[in-house]
Each structure stands twice: as structure tokens, then as C-alpha cells.
């Protein structure tokens, strides 16, 4: 049996007390240490568990992240060891998830993924703690949050299912640019290089994510949209669902998840914009036809919503009540009906700059009752709520005779500081997009699937064959390969 001191010496061997200034030196040292830890876990895992409490008290989770991870893995995977005090080991798990060194844990591979999956599956920690820990871990590995991983999907499911959405937002709000695929073949690149795009160090090969299929990507956006709906953040919900609506399905196909997202996208659009727009131009034509057929009740509801005919809107909502129930969209439809009068009030600013509260009451109706509100005070309260929520830019004024008016205001003029801040934020976004574009071009240019596609196109042009504009590179790929390196940044 190994002694405590032997374990301490081995676990404290990395990083060495002297600074590792260059990537090559750090990479070699990290690989060697990871190999030693792997051997310990394979041959002496039980001994490691015996000394786990003492060892974890000696190690620094930030400085000795890989060693700390090895002890946690031995103590918790596949299930918490009976010899370890549960409260102690789980508190150390939380500390690790919040503090580990993301650069060092790029070499943690499957051990880190096992721990993140155990947390994400809700087996170890209370949901509120698990969501915060998992979100923190995801961003420590990839501060940009730009690469979609299997841990993202676990986080979204757990946060939505347990109604712990707020702590997941730092991850969920990040726009996805990369998808996990095969690692780059350039041997001069090191996992520890802080300039690497995340797709070059987070992959199935490095063990930091499981492989994602197209259904996983679709599920992630659908769940994100539902999370935003739960928070009544309709614009973000609409954008999340739109990712599914415009997804490049193979051969113009359309999955059930895409249809579900289309229906929710229509409802979220009504709540965010007060109207439903046609499917984006980048949506495949065949897919759009399927949407139109399977989502007809939703399109009819949206068409009525954009008019002053409240009775027609109520009829559409009532006659397709079974559809909303079957699709699980009753709550969203109720939100749409409740918002109808607010959007009719907003539409008045296209005609008036100032209008009395009494006139607003006579000119707008509630879709929930089909009638005007009973009192001017009810209309005033509705308008005040719209102003407070930021939906309406206006004020309620009172004349000398006591008559109250709604004064629509011009759009807010931003200060120079606000404009400068927006420009700075835009510059940061553009910088990240340029990096992503360059990485995508580099990897796509080396993809055998893309090269085959270019050769096929060259032959077609030479033979004079007409190209079907609805067909493209994506039609050459199988579903399970869509997240492979050919379409990865």
C-alpha cells in the first residue's frame, strides 16, 4: 500500500514551482503528469480514496487542478465511495468546479468530463448548486463560451427541468460559433496554448466533450428558447427558436424538433414583435413548406393577431385549443392573448402622438374577454405597466380639466458614453467573429468532405450540368457527421 507521503510527492509534482513560460515546456510537463495520474487511478485508486481527505486539504484546487481532479474522480466516479465523508467530498467538488485552472484541465480529458456529467445529471449536488458549478466549469474551459459541448446540453436540461435558469445564463447567453469535431492535425499546436480556438482543444478526442449529433444541437436551441420563455425574455426566445427554424437539414428534411421550434418561434415572435414574420430567407424552401403545413393553426393565429379583429383572434385560439394542448403550448398561447391589447395600444403611435386614455379604452379590446376594459383606470394601469416594462416609450399626462392623455415619446437619444460603449462592444464581437472565421476557413479548407464537394462542383461546371440551388455542401454529409470536423470551426 502506498504511503501518504508518496501520494503527496506525486500529486504536487505539477506544476513545478518554477514558472512554465513557453507552451512546449508546459505541454510536455502536463502530459507527463496526466500520464502519471492515469497510472495512479488505474493501479492505486482505492489507496487514493483512503487518503483523499488529507490529500485534498493539502492540494490547491486552482494550482494543483489535475491532481485535485484525480482524487475527486477516484472518490466520486461512478458513485461516491463509501469510505469518504459525503459532505466533505461534495464541498471539495463544489470548490473545484468554481476554482480549477481551465488551461491545466485541458489535460484532464475524460476524468473532467466524467465529473461534469455526474454534476450535470443531478446525481451529486442540489440542482441550484449543480447548475452554477457546471456553468462555471464550462466557462473555465472555454471563457468565450463559443463552442457547443455535451456539457452545454446537460446544463440546459438541468437548469430548465429544475427551474434554476438564472445561474445558467452566463453560458446560455453566449452565441455558439464552433461545434466539437476532430482535433486539428497541426502538431505544432499545444493544448495549453491560450490563443487556440476552443474547437482545437475541446473535442471527443481530447475527452472534454462527447460527440454531438444534429439532434443534440437542435435540442439545445429548443431548450434555450424554452428557458427564455420561462423568463419571459421573448426576443431571446425568438432568436433561439429561429436557430432551429433555419437549421440546414439534409436534403431539405425537417425533424420534429424543428417543427416544434417553428410553432414556438411564431408565438415568441408575436410576444417580442407584435407580429409574425415569414420564415427567414435562409430557411430551406422544402422545410418552409413543411412548416407552413404542420404549423397552419399557428400561422392563422398570428395572422389574426396582427389585426383589430379581436373576435377572429379569439375564434382561432378557441377552435385550435386541442392543438395548443397537444403541442404543450397552452401557456404561450395564453401569453399571446394577454399581450394582444398591449400591442394594439402600441399600434396607436403610428397614428397619434397624443391620445386620451378614454379613447384608448374605446379603440382597443382585450383578447381574453373580447371587450374593452371596464374603466379608464384599468387602461391607465395597463399603460403604466407597459411603460415600466420598457415596452412603451411614453408618459401619462393630465390636463387642467382632469382629462388624462397618453403622450407617445420619441425614441430615447443615447449619450455619447452610451454610443461609445456600444461601439466598443461591437468591436469586441467583430474581433471574435474574425477569429472564428479564420479558424473555420482553415479547418474547412483541410476537410476531405469539402474538398470532395469542390471537385464535384468543378466537374459539374465543366460538364455544363445545372446546379440545383437548394443543394449544397451540407447535402453530402450524413446526420452523425454534421458535427464532425468538416463543419467545425
How many β strands by DSSP?
3
What is the string of helix and strand elements? HHHHHHHHHHHHHHHHHHEHHEEHH
Beta percentage is: under 5%
| Largest sheet properties | 3 strands, antiparallel
Count of DSSP helices? Answer: 22
Strand order of the largest sheet: 1-3-2
User: In whole angstroms, how far apart are the ends?
Assistant: 47 Å
Radius of gyration: 28 Å
Per the principal axes of the C-alpha atoms, what is the gross shape? elongated
Q: Structural class of the helix and strand makeup?
A: mainly alpha
**Fraction of residues in helix:** 55-70%
User: Average pLDDT across residues?
Assistant: 87
Low-confidence parts: 182-186, 465-489
Domain COP9 signalosome complex subunit 3 N-terminal helical repeats: 53-283
Keywords: Cytoplasm
InterPro entries: COP9_N (IPR055089), CSN3 (IPR050756)
Pfam families: COP9_hel_rpt
Question: What's this entry about, in short?
Answer:
This protein is mostly helical and 489 residues long.
What does this structure look like?
- A hairpin with a 5-residue loop joins strand 2 and strand 3.
- Among the domains are: 4-202; 416-487.
- It is mainly α and 489 residues long.
- Helix 9 (150-161) packs parallel to helix 11.
- The longest helix has 30 residues, at 416-445.
- The chain is built from 22 helices and three strands.
- Helices cover 57% and strands 3% of the residues.
- It has a three-stranded antiparallel beta sheet with strand order 1-3-2.
- The chain has helices at 4-11, 23-43, 45-50, 52-58, 65-76, 86-99, 109-120, 127-141, 150-161, 169-172, 214-230, 234-245, 256-273, 285-294, 296-305, 310-319, 321-327, 330-347, 357-363, 376-388, 416-445, 448-463, and strands at residues 354-356, 394-398, 404-408.
- It is elongated, with a radius of gyration of 28 Å.
